[in-house]
């Protein structure tokens, strides 16, 4: 089973997303969005950015 994005409403009434691995572990979370549509667009942005993204090491 593939991972999945979950869009949810936080305690402040904003919309957020989390990316869960196939084992149910949260591997990424998104910022707060004003609308559910904006949160879904955030998920799509992560999908586009991650497609073919390189892994780089930094000293920070």
From TrEMBL:
Tell me where on the tree of life, at the top rank, the source sits: Bacteria
Pfam families associated with the record: DUF1508
Q: Where is the DUF1508 domain?
A: 10-57
Q: Gene3D superfamilies annotated for this entry?
A: YegP-like (3.30.160.160)
Task: List the protein's name.
Answer: UPF0339 protein
The organism's lineage? Bacteria, Bacillati, Actinomycetota, Actinomycetes, Micromonosporales
């Amino acid at each position: 089973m593939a991972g999945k994005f979950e869009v949810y409403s936080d305690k402040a009434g904003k919309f957020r997303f989390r990316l869960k691995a196939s084992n149910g572990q949260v591997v990424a979370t998104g910022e707060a969005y004003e609308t559910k549509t904006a949160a879904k667009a955030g998920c799509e942005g992560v999908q586009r950015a991650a497609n073919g993204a390189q892994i780089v090491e930094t000293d920070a």
